[in-house]
Amino acid sequence: MAAAALSVTVREAWAKATGAVEVVGAASLTPVLAAINGATAEQARPVDCRRAKCVALTFDDGPGKYTDALLRHLAAYRARATFFVVGQNVAASPGVVRRTYAAGHEIGSHTWSHPDLTKLSAVRVRSQLARTDQAIKAAIGVRPKLLRPPYGAFNTAVRLQTRRPIVMWSLDTLDWRLRDSAKVARKTLRSVRPGSVILFHDIHPSTVRAMPRVLRGLSKRGYRFVTVSQLYGGHPPRLVYGAQ
């Protein structure tokens, strides 16, 4: 679906739900997406993470068969997150990515087939990124602005192949190793700090089962759930670990 077509669909849904007069323009898309998901006007406003307690939830390796369930958990807490998707999975399940994007989440690249980029030639690195960009654009109409290298593996040669920010993390929940929802939730709640960029994987059912407890616990502590770009006021640095 083209970006213009997606925007029209979202705006029409907004107008139907609220009776509002449509305001054409990209700037109107963020509050529209928020309103469709039940957010109030206050919650739809941009978050200033220099003042608010913000945390960026990030999910790697999808989309997968548990992603839709995760989207429902996030919607229940009006949480925004960043999904670093694998290109071949996007090509196989573009509808999941469209739903994720339409819900107001950020879509980043996690390469086409999840290789260690430091072991590839420059040409193959660029191919991994380009194929993923094409798949994401075909699904949601825009190319991703962020990159997370598989395994967190990158070097100078990899960085030279892209100008987009490389997003790492400040908190690894070890969900990929633990495969236990209670342990994943405990580790997250014990280790989180304001400005944390938290690493999850939505391909594991145990991770998705952990999310209600994580979201509930962090909400009680006053955290706001934002995308990586929102965490940095729309301008992430070239290399991201977590905001200070």
Q: Can you put this structure into words, describing what you see?
A:
The protein has twelve helices and eight strands. It has 244 residues and is an alpha/beta fold. The chain has two domains: 1-44, no CATH class; 46-240, Glycoside hydrolase/deacetylase (TIM Barrel). Strands 1, 2, 3, 5, 6 and 7 form a six-stranded parallel β-sheet that branches. A two-stranded parallel sheet has the order 4-8. Helix 4 links the parallel strand 1 and strand 2. It is globular. The N and C termini lie far apart (37 Å). Residues 1-44 have low confidence and may be disordered.
Strands, helices and their partners?
Blueprint: H1 3-18, H2 29-36, H3 41-44, E1 54-60, H4 67-76, E2 82-85, H5 87-92, H6 94-102, E3 106-109, H7 122-140, H8 156-159, E4 166-167, E5 171-172, H9 175-178, H10 181-191, E6 197-201, H11 205-220, E7 224-226, H12 228-231, E8 239-240
Parallel strand pairs: 1-2, 1-6, 1-7, 2-3, 4-8, 5-6
Pfam families: Polysacc_deac_1
InterPro entries: Glyco_hydro/deAcase_b/a-brl, NODB_dom, Polysacc_deacetylase_ArnD
Domain NodB homology: 53-226
- Give the termini distance in whole angstroms: 37 Å
Radius of gyration: 17 Å
Biggest beta sheet summary: 6 strands, parallel
Percentage of residues in strands: 5-15%
* Alpha plus pi helix count: 12
Q: What's the CATH C level of the largest domain?
A: Alpha Beta
| CATH homolog superfamily of the largest domain | Glycoside hydrolase/deacetylase
Give the overall average pLDDT. 86
User: Any idea what the CATH architecture of the largest domain is?
Assistant: Alpha-Beta Barrel
What is the H/E order? HHHEHEHHEHHEEHHEHEHE
- Content-based structural category: alpha/beta
Number of domains: 2
- Uncertain regions spanning at least 5 consecutive residues: 1-44
Oligomeric grouping of the chains: single chain
User: What is the share of helical residues?
Assistant: 40-55%
CATH fold name of the largest domain = TIM Barrel
Shape: globular
Strand runs, count: 8
